[in-house]
Amino acid sequence: MAQFDKKDLERRMNGAVESLKSDLSGLRTGRANTTLLDPVTVEVYGAHMPLTQIATVSAPEPRMLSVQVWDKSNVGPADKAIRSAGLGLNPIVDGQTLRLPIPDLTEERRKELAKLAGQYAEKARVAIRNVRRDGMDSLKTDEKKGEISEDERKRFETEVQKLTDDMIAQADAAATQKEKEILGQ
User: Fold this and answer.
1) pLDDT less than 50: residues of the chain
2) 102-129 per-position pLDDT tens digit
3) Which residues does the UniProt record annotate as the domain Ribosome recycling factor (predicted)?
4) What is the secondary structure of 71-118 as a DSSP string?
5) Cβ 55 vs Cβ 95: under 8 Å
6) Burial readout 3-31 (b: 16 or more C-beta within 10 A, e: otherwise)
7) Whole-angstrom Cα distance, residue 20 to residue 72?
């Protein structure tokens, strides 16, 4: 039975691109976005939980996030978790609601975020290439076992390379768009 599965390779490459898009959505652009708080975990009830599991996060204004904590005893830990998350946000506690004004980005911070977006894109490209390598290896294994011919292997390798190029182009496009958004162009 041949090991090569193009659908599986495509699924794994798509996963790398989707992961990149998820990572990029967490980068601040100066506008309020609820995904900005996705990486924040809060220590409550003896466990680390995502902020979204103990509160409702919304963006009532373009430059303000609102976190409505459900349990009054979790307001302090939520405040502490947001401050220590390294997002540059300082919550204002108002009862069970935390208000997070989104400060303007300095030019220096914009350049740092654009560089970070580039690093995320490079990680995605490496992940896509690793999937390509796995696919090429399985093709060579199948050929050695005699399950596919050399011509079939070369045809499949061409398909895998085309798929890789398409996925890398998608990753680059997502990163370029985010960099432009961050730099305000």
Assistant:
1) 1
2) 877 788 878 878 888 888 899 999 999 9
3) 20-183
4) SGGGHHHHHHHHHHTTS----EEETTEEEEE-PPPPHHHHHHHHHHHH
5) no
6) bbeeeebbebbeebbeebbebbebbbbbe
7) 35
> Which of these CATH numbers, 3.30.1360.40, 3.10.490.10, 2.60.120.380, 2.10.109.10, describes 34-101?
3.30.1360.40
Q: Given this model, what pLDDT does residue 114 score?
A: 85
Determine what percent of the chain is predicted with pLDDT higher than 90.
Answer: 39
Q: Where exactly does CATH 1.10.132.20 map onto the chain?
A: 6-27+106-184
The ranges of the chain annotated as CATH 3.30.1360.40 are 34-101
The pLDDT, as a whole number, for residue 67 is 92
Residue 30 has what pLDDT? 67
CA pair distance 7, 4, nearest whole angstrom: 9
* The predicted structure's pLDDT at residue 106: 80
Beta bridge partners of 101: 64
* CATH T-level topology, domain 6-27+106-184: Topoisomerase I; Chain A, domain 4 (1.10.132)
